[in-house]
Amino acid sequence: MGARPMKVLVTGGVRSGKSRHAEELLGTADDVAYVAPGPSPEHDDADWAARVAAHRAARPANWVTHETPDLAGVLATTAGPVLVDCLGTWLTAVVDERDLWEASSDRVAGVVDALLDDVVAALAATASDVVLVTNEVGLGVVPAYRSGRLFRDLLGSVNQRVASACDEVHLVIAGRVLRL
């Protein structure tokens, strides 16, 4: 992406083109570590499994895929460019793995904040280009269920913390990119 390492957060709505834009930012690199931190595609959701398979098939063959929610670990141990897609699926995996959907908001926020401390520290320490994808939240209706409100509030906080550790934030709407 440039002479000095860049950290870019790409945000936007679902199906806005943000993943494609993120991949284009690192498209000329041949040693990209692609981090897919979401829920395991093996769980009982055929649509999710198909979506994961389509993403896998679209990636360049020379990119190395890490299907793990350990963002800090990958950032700390990878020498080349890193693409994380996406923080929303990372958050879902974190809450799922720890069975926190019914926990108090304060407890869930504490767990997420502690993990995020490690992610932000690793992001600041890496000498690699990093592009992180996330969903923009809070532009629509208030979710009807507690889990939706919890997710929206947590992801909004995650996005703010990660954006503060990045050099640029790109907002993607209908395939168009606005650099903030």
Task: Explain what the structure shows.
Helices cover 44% and strands 18% of the residues. It has 180 residues and is α/β, with parallel strands linked by helices. It has a seven-stranded mixed β-sheet with strand order 3-2-4-5-1-6-7, with helices on both faces. The protein is globular. The chain starts with 6 loop residues before the first strand and ends with a strand. The mean pLDDT is 91.
**Helix/strand/pairing category:** alpha/beta
Strand content: 15-25%
Q: Portion of residues in helices?
A: 40-55%
Task: Give me the number of helical elements.
Answer: 6
User: What's the total count of β strands?
Assistant: 7
Q: Give the end-to-end Cα distance, rounded to a whole number of Å.
A: 17 Å
Strand order of the largest sheet: 3-2-4-5-1-6-7
**Outline type:** globular
Largest sheet: 7 strands, mixed
Order of helices and strands: EHEHEHEHHEHEE
Q: Enumerate the spans where pLDDT stays under 50 for 5 or more consecutive residues.
A: none
Rg, nearest Å: 16 Å
Mean pLDDT: 91
Any key phrases for this structure?
180 residues, globular, seven-stranded mixed β-sheet, 6 helices, 44% helix
Question: What's a quick, concise take on this entry?
Answer:
With 180 residues, the chain is of the alpha/beta class. Helices cover 44% and strands 18% of the residues.
Element layout with pairings:
Elements: E1 7-12, H1 18-25, E2 33-35, H2 46-58, E3 64-66, H3 71-77, E4 82-85, H4 87-97, H5 105-125, E5 130-135, H6 146-164, E6 168-173, E7 176-179
Parallel strand pairs: 1-5, 1-6, 2-3, 2-4, 4-5
Antiparallel strand pairs: 6-7
Helix pairs in contact: 3-5, 4-6, 5-6
